[in-house]
Specification:
By secondary structure, the chain is mainly alpha-helical. It has helices at 8-29, 39-61, 68-87, 92-115, 124-167, 173-176, 183-186, 191-194, 199-217, 249-254, 257-281, 294-304, 315-319, 322-348; strands at residues 224-228, 236-239, 244-248.
């Protein structure tokens, strides 16, 4: 079963080359911060995961399976795990299916290897052969699962967006990212239609709404939408370092669509507030004194000392912040406008 296609020197050289390629490629296509971690902290954890995986695979296979696939597998598996951790909220139904399928295939494969032709009197070499075969199977299944996870993300993040762009080559974003241009999706916010949607379909609706709000609010950067398990009293939150909104999975599936829409619009306004603050802080002292930037100056002060109940602040302190009051007012007006437009559209049919 020995298959050392690389010399020891070439193995280490290829590990460095493939490692650099994989990390650069992953950074450009898929990297997102871990929840609650900075970019630097997230990269440290990712690099540790890759290092541990490489050391483990090298330890297990160095003497008898020293080849390029061992190196590639040791890189793909931790990258796939990290992608699952950071992006599972994008496609929860699909990712759960991938995990279940992976576990099922592993159990079936390992059982088949261990049970088939089992002989209690087999010698040490035969037992070692069976152990190595089990390791190779586990490695192959986990590598394929990681590839599927990243291909799914690539399709979601890039292929679907490219298709959408080609469908609207003659139309600007200002024309396509409006309620009128997406009325078929907006109509799904009706309670009787919302109840028919599964989790992924509801997420797709929210992503469409986020695109509309991004256009209306003048936000340049893409804002990703994820679902996540959260405390009972938390509906969602915006994380500026990731340019991402997290929605409570329980609320998404159990709350009326009006409340979910309110949460999304509230958090989209927070995204806009952060953008206003960035513009404000990029200006000189004199320019910052403009009357029209007064709100941005208050937002900047509040974000520097944000009052959160999770961090020990009283509810009144959190609730009374200007950034929160303005977000609530905007969300209330936005929700009213969406349902007014739905009612208007239906009355014209």
């Amino acid at each position: 079963m020995c298959n050392n296609s690389l010399t020891k020197k070439n193995y280490y050289a290829e590990s460095i080359i493939w490692g650099l390629i994989a990390l650069i490629w992953y950074n450009n296509l898929f990297f997102k911060c871990l929840d609650g971690k900075t970019v630097t902290g997230s990269w440290i954890i990712l690099l540790l995961m890759v290092a541990v995986s490489w050391l483990l695979h090298t330890k297990l296979a160095y003497n008898w399976r020293r080849c390029t696939f061992t190196i590639v597998s040791s890189l793909l598996i931790p990258l796939g795990i990290y992608a699952y951790i950071t992006c599972a909220g994008m496609m929860p139904k699909l990712f759960r299916l991938i995990i279940l399928a992976t576990v099922f295939v592993i159990i079936i494969s390992v059982c088949f290897i261990q049970i088939s032709d089992f002989d209690s009197s087999e010698n040490t070499n035969e037992k070692m052969y069976r152990t190595k075969k089990t390791y190779l199977t586990l490695r192959m299944v986990c590598t394929l699962a990681s590839v599927v996870v990243m291909l799914s993300l690539f399709g979601k993040n890039y292929v679907s967006k490219w298709i959408n762009r080609t469908e609207h080559t003659s139309t600007s974003e200002e024309d396509t990212c409006t309620i009128a241009a997406n009325i078929d999706t907006v109509l799904l916010l009706q309670p009787e239609e919302w109840d028919k949607l599964d989790e992924d379909e509801r997420l797709d609706v929210l992503r469409c709404i986020a695109g509309i709000e991004r256009n209306y609010l003048g936000i340049e950067d893409e804002v990703s939408i994820y679902v996540k398990d959260m405390p009972e009293n938390t509906c969602g939150y915006y994380k500026h370092s990731q340019s991402a909104i997290y929605i409570s999975e329980e609320r998404l599936m159990n709350d009326p669509p009006r409340e979910t829409l309110d949460t999304l619009c509230h958090e989209m306004f927070h995204a806009a507030q952060h953008r206003y603050v960035e513009i404000y802080e990029s200006l000189g002292t004199k320019d910052r004194e403009s009357y029209f930037l007064y709100d941005a100056s208050l937002y900047a002060q509040e974000f520097d000392d944000y009052k959160s109940c999770e961090n020990g602040a009283e509810f009144e302190e959190y609730y009374g912040q200007k950034c929160e009051k303005d977000a609530r007012e905007y969300a209330e007006e936005a929700v009213y406008d969406y349902y007014r437009r739905i009612k208007l559209y239906l009355s014209e049919q």
